[in-house]
Amino acid sequence: MCVRTFLNTVLFGVGAVLWLAVTGLVAGPFLYLWPGKNGCNARRFVYVQAKGILFFMRLCSRSWRVERGPRPQGPCVVAANHASALDLYTVAAFGYDNVLYITKGWVFKLPFFGKVMRAAGYIDAETTPPQQMLDRCRQAVKDGCDIVLFPQGSRKNPLARFKSGAFYLAIELGLPVIPLAIGGTGKMLPSGALWLRPADILLGTLGAVYPADFTGPLDHLEMAREVKKRIMDYLQKEHML
Amino acid sequence: MNISKEEIIRQTNEALKKEFELTDAQLTPQANLKDDIGLDSLDAVDMVVVLEQKFGMNIRQGYDLRSIVTLQDLYNFIEKIAQESMQNK
């Protein structure tokens, strides 16, 4: 282990934990009293926390690049590749401050985070019945939320298959999908790692993919392949895969 | 539909590889569709549509698909439907 990795881990560990603890202690009581319509205040609180985490990620990175593609008007589905726990915070780099995450169930069992996630109205992908999930997403879209998913399902580096659920949702709700390419987080903090290595980080939102461009009973599968291809092509072009 | 077992296996594997980005190594007859191949409930629905298109038959109506656990179960199931459609002609 190099000195930079050790310093990174200490800096991120202390800085991020302090940031989460202080903001949690300050904002917690307010969120409890004023959760906002359908958890919108909690979602904005998560955005503020994520911005802080991104600040520490940036300090720990070797290089940091954020590329913003054109964003369509109105709510979208954001579909990202997933190689690290750090990926959860990356959407905040693009200023998406009102997002609904659909994630795995174990995250809801974490102390503190689980409570915030429930307050924010995030959806447990493993236990929520499909129709209920669709209804909650429809309501969230009415509230102006973007929906964020990691279609690989779990942290995998390099890219694994994109499961089609996110795209089925986008087609059902008639929302464009913004591919979010995340490069370097899998090197900085891969699944199971405890040390934060210095790495080049690239975050890029790519041109939107629209449901109307896909037809037939397997439209969501085609859309999943298209979004994955765009992310792969982008990361390969930037030598991040 | 007159189709051999080998052809069912070949066409099923071909369709699964294309639609679900699977490799030959994953497609063993004993492979569990959920645990080994990683197909979730929506994938299972998609798989049925893919196979209906591939073999030109109706799989969804009148059959209990919950008994299909492994790839071998899937091959056997398609073979059974193919035989039934032959007998009904």
What does this molecule look like?
- The complex is a heterodimer of chains A (241) and B (89).
- Chain A has one domain: Glycerol-3-phosphate (1)-acyltransferase (3-Layer(aba) Sandwich), CATH 3.40.1130.
- Chain A has seven helices and seven strands, in the order ααβββαβαβαβαβα.
- Chain A has helices at 3-33, 40-60, 113-119, 130-142, 165-173, 185-188, 219-237; strands spanning 63-67, 77-80, 99-103, 123-124, 146-149, 177-183, 200-205.
- In chain A, β3, α3 and β4 form a beta-alpha-beta unit.
- The model of chain A has no long low-confidence stretch (mean pLDDT 93).
- Chain B has one domain (5-88): ACP-like (Non-ribosomal Peptide Synthetase Peptidyl Carrier Protein, Chain A, Orthogonal Bundle), CATH 1.10.1200.10.
- Chain B is globular.
- The chains are: A alpha/beta (241), B mainly alpha (89).
- Chain A binds chain B through residues 130, 153, 161, 163-165, 168, 217-218, 220-221, and chain B through 19-21, 38, 40-43, 46, 49-50.
Keywords:
heterodimer, A: 241 residues, alpha/beta, Glycerol-3-phosphate (1)-acyltransferase, seven-stranded mixed beta sheet, 7 helices, 7 strands, B: 89 residues, mainly alpha, Non-ribosomal Peptide Synthetase Peptidyl Carrier Protein, Chain A, 3 helices
Largest interface, C-beta within 8 A: A-B, 11 and 11 residues
| Arrangement of strands in the largest sheet of chain A | 1-7-6-2-5-3-4
Shape of chain A: globular
What's the tally of helices of chain B? 3
Which class of chain A in CATH terms? Alpha Beta
The CATH homologous superfamily of chain B is termed: ACP-like
Our count of domains of chain B comes out at 1
> SSE order of chain B in H/E notation?
HHH
Number of strands of chain A: 7
- Tell me the quaternary state: heterodimer
Largest sheet of chain B: none
Termini separation of chain B comes to 9 Å
What amount of the residues of chain A lies in strands? 5-15%
Computed structural class of chain A? alpha/beta
Mean pLDDT, all residues of chain A: 93
CATH architecture of chain A: 3-Layer(aba) Sandwich
- Rg of chain B from C-alpha positions? 12 Å
Helix content of chain A: 40-55%
Query: Please, how many domains of chain A?
Result: 1
